[in-house]
Amino acid sequence: MAPKTILLILYPRTEGTSFNYDYYIQKHIPFATEVWAPYGFQVPSITRMDESSGYHLSAVLEFESREAFDKAQGADRLKELMDDVGSGSFTKSEPAFSTGDSIV
User: Fold this and answer.
1) CB 4 within 8 A of CB 101
2) Listing from the earlier edge strand, what are the strands of the sheet with 5-12?
3) In this structure, what CATH number is given to the domain that contains residue 76?
4) At 70, which helix (H) or strand (E)?
5) One digit per residue, pLDDT tens: the chain, 104 residues?
6) What is the pTM for the complete model shown?
7) In the chain, how many domains are there?
């Protein structure tokens, strides 16, 4: 079995930023699931971070393999999904993205 590929997204808690958790959970994540489900996207883990952490939210997104993740980056509606990230609908915080492959 190939290791899962993880996409970690962190939304920093910077001066003047807020986070609309309801929009993110009710609109953005279902949209991401719709866009990426054909590419091995699995149920995400979403965490509201403590204020002291310096982040509003962390999202851990799993894909069934590196190949599936790479294909997801070419999804037909990826631009639309990323436009939602940049729209300010849930935050003006600039997300940090990091990927890796699970080892356990």
Assistant:
1) yes
2) 45-48, 55-63, 5-12, 96-101
3) 3.30.70.100
4) helix 66-72
5) 789 999 999 999 999 999 999 999 999 999 999 999 999 999 899 999 999 999 999 999 999 999 999 999 999 999 999 999 999 999 999 999 999 999 98
6) 0.92
7) 1
